[in-house]
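Run log, item B.
One chain of 284 residues. Sequence copied directly from the ordering sheet:
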Amino acid sequence: MLTKRLTKIVLSLFLFTIDRAREAFLTVCGLAVNRKTVVLYYHAITDDEKTLFARQMDLLLRIATPATINLDVVERPRPTTRGVAVTFDDGFVSVLENALPELRARQIPCTIFVPSGSVGGPPRWLPLGHKDSREFVMSGEQLRSIAGDPLVTIGSHSVTHPDFCVLNPEAAKRELERSKRELEQLSLGAVVHFSFPHGRHDERSIQLALGAGYRRLFTIRPECAQEFLFVCGRVKVDPTDWPLEFRLKTVGAYRWLAVLDRWKTSFRQKARGESDRQRRMHVS
């Protein structure tokens, strides 16, 4: 695990060096440097992690500008600034208690994705022994208490936290529509953002989500956010990340992992197609 972590850091440092050299070249040439926006995502923020999270938010403010996820675009003050948006999956109570006070103190906006079927209860999709299995999802009353906060946006994280790649179209549509309806019935305002559980999605689930009325969809592929695109990648962050790790993730240097993921997905699809072709030939 440590070797894998260090490998990611080394490769991300290499990409960061290339990015800085490119920016320096553009600056020398008198050309504008248009930096991309990065969307971070967390899960729980435990009592022991509150101080670590606060330090990360201080670092974020030193190296980037907080960005707001607003319908179809990820907004930041100027295209030349490095924008960073903060999101949380699962809507845990620990985020309400430990993360939101730190964000409010620094005026950093955030989006919280909530699985409507677990509101006020435990995360039923997590196995016993998982580090977040003892967390609780915020209740309707707790969600209403933060829904009016201009720094907080509530989004959907489905009803039961399923894998959308294995759901049939009818079940996927029910998950999308019911979650949106249930969250809006809690008087949380219009729910127009959706985060795919486990980041699992395909083209069919994207179209179903757009048809259900969502305006912005979020994955866990560590791509930089692009304006006017419905599907937005995000970078996983933990409060226990080393400062160098957090800095590299915040500036978009982990985006090479998204390219690697696309290659792996393409290779698996080709291998599956070849296996199916050979099976059909054998049967015939």
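Observations after the first pass:
- The domain at 36-246 is CATH 3.20.20.370 (TIM Barrel).
- The two ends are 46 Å apart (CA to CA).
Flagged for discussion on Thursday.
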